[in-house]
Amino acid sequence: MTFGIEAASFYAPSLYLEIKDLAEKRGIEPAKLEKGLGLHKMGLPDVHEDAATFAAEALLKLITDYQINPKDISRIYIGTESALDAAKPTASYAMQMVEKYLENEFGERCFKNCDVVDMTFACIGAVDALHNSLDFVQANPDKKAIVIASDYAKYELSSPGEYTQGGGAVALLISSEPNLIEIENKWGVATESVFDFFKPRRQFKKEDLKESPENFPDKIEIFTDEPVFDGHYSNQCYQDRIREAYQHYKEITSTTKPYENWRYLIFHLPYAFHGKRVFTEIYSLENGISFDTLEEQKSVAKSEEYIQFINSKIEKSQRASSEIGNMYTASIFMALLSAFQSSYDENEDLSGEEIGFLAYGSGSKSKVFAGKVSPKWKKVVSKWNLFETLKNRLAIDFNTYEKLHRKQLEHSVNPDYNGFGLDRIELENPVLKGARYYQHK
Ligand SMILES: CC(=O)CC(=O)SCCNC(=O)CCNC(=O)[C@H](O)C(C)(C)COP(=O)(O)OP(=O)(O)OC[C@H]1O[C@@H](n2cnc3c(N)ncnc32)[C@H](O)[C@@H]1OP(=O)(O)O
């Protein structure tokens, strides 16, 4: 019996900013962002969108595109680091939105007996949800699980993270009918606790508060959706963890150079070119190339052989990332969709090919695993139209972007949107203060 991904769907935020507009306003050379990091557009949520609406959109699309009966789903596990509440899971909001939408067709509370939960470990939380769900379907081959990766990658204005923002969701149906890709349940794992990127409950001093400090206690704690991070250190942690997890994968699978057998290498992509930049280390170790400095490592990336390797095994997975930006937990799965969609568009046959995954979550952990493409993959991919769909987003100008970022807009940029949206947040009723209410329009 085989297990893996039976079907997949995605949702990209409805707005975007051209990266060259950001570069111009911030005084950054556009070529650095476009040719250095591979960024073209940055996906941004409208006022009514958040990680819960992204997840609901991807979930609904999965159900309708592949004619899934929601009552057949035993689990919905969401990987996210953009939770809207520290107790009530984002999964419960997304599930409720879809339940309401499907009420006419399936009756009230169609997910009544479904186990829903969030999993958080920065960008790797949805890979953890996949790992867990595969174990679940292996133990219960007649059951199906849904994994959703959903996030909004937001950084402080004018910070070095600003040009690596983005967001969106990918939903995966996990079962014993892996019509897209069978996942080999063997996981190389590497973990180390570090502070490369995190979202602490930040402590503020009274004098830091601009408005009415007398109303606040001496110190307050708040959650922030913008991370504390050290970009170059996070790159190093990413490189170290994937090297360690890859080594572990080799040990547990008794393989010597697994990457050579992989048709595609699918990375967590915080920006489009990250995978190809950091893989130079593993590539060099595997091929007996030694380097002592970062400059020497970079020279590996310029070799004819490495460029050919990138063009054949990584480039197609980068294409969607260039158009959307960082999707945190969803980035690795969007890289997979991008590679599949590109091969589909170019009429390539991937049946039976092996695909390798190199996942990373700050804080920090990496998982390396692999899968085999199903002979039925084209039927699954035929529902996506990934690159066409991305063309239908609405472009916004820089001023609108800054206002959205600062939460200064009261109404949606696109008031005629069609989909799930935040309707209101309860502010008065003391026993419901902060409750979020959504609707579909
Ligand atoms: C957050 C997660 O999602 C989890 C993770 O993966 S952690 C690892 C990634 N970390 C992050 O994404 C954190 C947020 N982002 C950041 O901190 C920063 O944006 C970053 C670290 C990702 C990039 O930092 P930066 O200082 O702006 O860029 P830098 O690392 O110098 O790279 C710029 C590239 O553009 C190239 N470049 C510069 N000017 C150029 C030009 N005019 N033409 C062409 N290329 C140019 C540089 O040569 C360099 O490429 P190479 O190193 O391959 O030669």
UniProtKB/TrEMBL annotation:
Q: Which domain of life is it from?
A: Bacteria
- Does Ligase count among this protein's keywords? no
Q: Pfam families under this entry?
A: HMG_CoA_synt_C, HMG_CoA_synt_N
Xref: InterPro entries: HMG_CoA_synt_C_dom, HMG_CoA_synth_N, Thiolase-like
Q: Which UniProt keywords apply?
A: Transferase
Start and end residues of each Hydroxymethylglutaryl-coenzyme A synthase N-terminal domain: 3-176
Quick check: keyword Repeat in the entry?
no
The Hydroxymethylglutaryl-coenzyme A synthase C-terminal domain, residue ranges: 308-404
Recorded hits in CDD domains, A to Z, give: init_cond_enzymes
| Coiled-coil annotated residue ranges, if any | none
| Recorded family membership | Belongs to the thiolase-like superfamily. HMG-CoA synthase family.
Name of the protein this chain belongs to: Hydroxymethylglutaryl-CoA synthase
